[in-house]
Amino acid sequence: MVIGMNDAAANLPPGAQLLGREWIGFNESGDAVIRFQAQVAFTNRHGTVQGGFLAAMLDSATGVCALAKLSHDLTVVTKSLDTRFLKPAAAGVITARARVMEQTERDMVVQAELIDAADVTVADATARLRILAKK
């Protein structure tokens, strides 16, 4: 994999640190690959990762993918995140694969899925993002 962005833990926002986010790079298909560490503290009464944490991982993955495709003077914010929960997710490593599906001067659509350690897709999402100049 080719590393594309510096996502050093010291520079991560608090939410990304909580999720254990790690930028891996782009794979041979051009998908952004981002790894998360789902903590036991993220689990619900069923012992699986609560959906809000999975949604946060998808939101983070789609945003990081978008940023990796934009120039350094631009940023993105999420306008909507259409999320599907497909299978229960266990605590541990969860990997996101994300790709830009559409882009205009002002907007971007990014799709992502979360894959667990057993290579099972546990959730996916489509994010609609607004592209903004950095302040």
Describe the protein in words.
- This protein is α+β, with helices and mostly antiparallel strands and 135 residues long.
- The chain is built from 2 helices and 6 strands, in the order αββαββββ.
- It has a single domain, classed as Roll (Thiol Ester Dehydrase, Chain A), CATH 3.10.129.10.
- Helices cover 18% and strands 43% of the residues.
- Strand 5 and strand 6 form a beta hairpin.
- The chain is globular and about 45 Å long.
- The N terminus is likely disordered.
- Estimate what percentage of residues fall within beta strands: 35-45%
Strand numbers in spatial order across the main sheet: 1-2-4-5-6-3
CATH architecture: Roll
Q: How many individual β-strands?
A: 6
**Shape summary:** globular
If helices are DSSP runs of H or I spanning 4 or more residues, what is the number of helices?
A: 2
- Structural class, judged by helices and strands? alpha+beta
Question: What is the alpha-carbon Rg in Å?
Answer: 14 Å
Low-confidence stretches: 1-7
Helix content bin: 10-25%
Please write the CATH class name. Alpha Beta
SSE pattern, N- to C-terminal:
HEEHEEEE
- Give the overall average pLDDT: 93
CATH level 4 superfamily: Hotdog Thioesterase
Instruction: Give the domain tally.
Output: 1
The largest sheet is: 6 strands, antiparallel
Give me the CATH fold name. Answer: Thiol Ester Dehydrase, Chain A
N-C termini distance: 32 Å
